[in-house]
Structure formats: C-alpha cells, structure tokens
Design the sequence.
C-alpha cells in the first residue's frame, strides 16, 4: 500500500528544497567572481599555520604571497617558495629558495622548478580549496615549474585538507610533512 502525502506537505517540501538550494548557491557565489592576485604583504596574525613568519620572510628571495580577492577583500592566502629541492623545515626552505633564486638570477632564468606551499588559510568557506585550485592552474601554465609540493605541519587537519584536495603524502619529516599535487 502506497502512502500518499498531503498536497500541502508536498508543496512545503518543494519550497524548502528550493530555498535550501538558493541559500547554498548564495553561500558559494563569491567563488565565481574571485581571482588570484599576488600580494606585497599579508596580515601574519591571521595565519594559523606559521604566524611567526613576517612579511619580509614571505616576500624574500624566491618567495611570494598569493591571495584570492573578491570585491576588494582577500578571502584566502597562500605563501610559496620556489626551490629546486624539497625542504624538510622552514629553515631549509629559506636556504633552498634563496639558493634557487640566486642560481636563476645568475643564469637570467625564472625561479626554482618546484613551488613549495608552506602556509595556506582562508577567511571564508571554500577559500582554501579555491586558492589551491587557482595556484595549481597558475603552476600548470608556467614554463619553469614542474611540481607543487607542500611543507605542512604534522597535524591531522593539514593531512585531511591536502588529501581531500587530491595531494599525495610523499614524506614525513621531524616537524613537517610534504604532500605533492600532480602537475600534468
């Protein structure tokens, strides 16, 4: 025996479904108009991963800051270093990015061949995933970068974030871990 719903209940369910879909669409609508921009500085106090690193470090030799901008506001930030080897610590990251920068400056070429993402954070839902996707596109278009590697803290949150976004764990270090996003 098939149970029939009251037509008023059916109408209410349809209406609620439409409202829910509209709210979800509005919640993520900012993503469609967002764009990746290079930043001269960021608010390091907002960085939950590496707040101890100042803007001088983040924009030093072979290092850059990128943000996702929407309507004049920055909603996600990712900091990079360009190296030719995979670092195991922030100290090693500084040395390797400086070395790669100086090597390429001597040869009049672009930076290192590996982009190392060493911190990422978002102020808005969906921003972290969006910035990873946008930076990934930028790296695919570049002529000199062939790998996207992270220098992530040894936390469950970092592991879940990178695995959810398609990265593979390549090594665990004393205080960090490295994930790789495939660049094809």
Sequence:
């Amino acid at each position: 025996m098939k149970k029939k719903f009251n037509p008023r209940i059916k109408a209410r369910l349809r209406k609620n479904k439409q409202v829910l879909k509209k709210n979800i669409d509005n919640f993520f609508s900012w993503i469609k108009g967002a764009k990746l921009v290079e930043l001269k500085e960021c608010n390091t106090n907002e960085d939950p991963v590496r707040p101890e690193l100042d803007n001088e470090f983040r924009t030093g030799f072979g290092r850059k800051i990128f943000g996702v901008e929407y309507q004049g506001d920055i909603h996600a930030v990712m900091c990079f270093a360009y190296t030719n080897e995979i670092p195991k610590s922030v100290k090693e990251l500084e040395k390797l990015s400086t070395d790669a920068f100086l090597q390429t400056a001597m040869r009049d070429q672009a930076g290192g061949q590996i982009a190392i993402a060493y911190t990422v954070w978002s102020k808005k839902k969906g921003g972290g995933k969006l910035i990873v996707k946008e930076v990934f596109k930028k790296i695919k278009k570049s002529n000199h970068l062939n790998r996207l590697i992270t220098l992530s803290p040894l936390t469950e949150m970092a592991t879940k974030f990178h695995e959810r976004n398609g990265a593979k764990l390549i090594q665990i270090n004393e205080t960090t871990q490295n994930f790789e996003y495939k660049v094809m």
About this structure: The first helix runs from residue 7 to 33.
